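One thing: could you explain this record?
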Amino acid sequence: MKLSDSELKHLEELAKLKLEGESRQKLRIQLSRIIDFVRKLQEVDTSGYEARAYVGRFKPYLRPDEPEECLPRDKVLEESPDTEKGQFRVPPIIETE
């Protein structure tokens, strides 16, 4: 299935990407191949197989979830590249006008 120009533009907007020329065409081809592959997978008859959260014969060992003592706040903040008023300071990720 070939991805339409409007579909690709919509994906660019969702991913906050601006592609042009050869990069845009290359992405269109790659995404089209991925969509075709997923469609083939959807055609596979999986009846007779039960759903699993893991692959293989054996269930993975999971340790018990037990509360432990936390690290001291000051020690954790010492390791941070930037702090302000006892909190982590990170660059903004949402653009504002």
In short: The chain is about 40% helix and 5% strand. The first strand starts at residue 83 and ends at 84. Strands lie at 83-84, 87-88. The mean pLDDT is 89.
